[in-house]
Amino acid sequence: MANATHHGALNMILHFAGLGSMGLGMALSCLRAGLEVHGADTNPDRLAALVAGGGQALQPDSPKADALVCVVLNAEQTRNVLFGAAALADRLRPGGVILSCATVAPAFAREMEAEAEARGLCYLDAPISGGSIKAASGQLSIMAAGKPEAFAAARPVLDAMATTVFELGDTAGPGSAMKAVNQMLAGVHIAAMAEAMTFGMTQGVAPDRFLEVIRQCAGTSWMLENRAPHIVAGDYSPHSSVNIWPKDLGIVLDIAREARFPAPITAAALQQYLAAAGMGLGQEDDAAVAKVYARNAGLTLPGEA
Question: Which residues are known catalytic residues?
Fold first, then answer.
């Protein structure tokens, strides 16, 4: 296994930008693997949780890092964190590696790779999948693309965060392309689950019975099996929020438009998430998209009066 630098993996210094539902779990997984983690987040509670787990807050006098993991919301935040006002790329050692995990367009990933290489840094296009629970247990899937030296430099971090690392290409872009394909399916599957469950309710099929039967039939999906229990329980504590999907499906449709590719099913799913956000459900679990269907059909979901 390649070490990240001559320092070796065990005393590897890692900077973490973004300690949200995914980032905090990823950072804690890196701590468990013996990496030294200095984190930054706009939410002091998330920073406090990192410190409680053995990490440190990223300070102006923090040591330079061997690797920077960027788990922010979108392309704009990625650019700002790496090369804009925050300029965390400047706090990497020469030859250090950036692991960029946000959902972005492939062209943006290639642009960031060029910026990094101009500064003598490695860049890994490294979108993530698996949700907050797998992030916390170091069991993510990572769809990665970058030069061999970027993979070598990032290996201890990848090993700490993921059980599966797909090596999709030797330059940035293919990782983000695969993430867009995954998000198209994931977003559509959640909306389709909500549509099918509420349709079943109009026919007297209770949500718990729907889940019991369909999870063992051909109509199931990973998203159905993961999200339908939230609706059955009437618990919309966000593991992944409704607000993720206008962003991610918006990116997918932007890429599709550039490719002159019609994506009508994705566009229909996006409208349901926008409707959910418009109902004030943006911060709830993305399974709350079922509430759009329930409202329109006059249905009462579990846990609702």
Answer: 179
